[in-house]
Design brief:
Strand order of the largest sheet: 3-2-1-4-5
Largest sheet: 5 strands, antiparallel
Order of helices and strands: EEEEE
Structural class: mainly beta
Low-confidence stretches: none
Radius of gyration: 12 Å
Number of domains: 1
Strand content: over 45%
Helix content: under 10%
Number of strands: 5
């Protein structure tokens, strides 16, 4: 089952692997400042041009990050 959790991108490091764009991300949880996780994710599982400071929704399946969605202000 997929779960979503609110976070903020602390580090964003793009890299290429066999010609495919990936990102190494350090994510801080909004409800637990100072805690978070690292994720490595392909370009097609995240929005265009992720940047440090972006607020995101991290969707994980069995604790494996599946996609990252940029949070928007309502």
């Amino acid at each position: 089952m997929a779960e979503g959790k609110a976070g903020r991108l602390v580090e964003v490091e793009p890299y290429l692997l066999h010609g495919v764009q990936y990102y190494r991300l350090l994510i801080e949880w909004l409800d637990q400042p100072g805690t978070g996780r690292e994720a490595r994710i392909a370009h097609d599982a995240i929005y265009a041009e992720p940047a440090r400071g972006d607020e995101v929704e991290v969707v994980a399946i069995l604790n494996v990050v599946d996609r990252i969605i940029r949070r928007t202000e309502d």
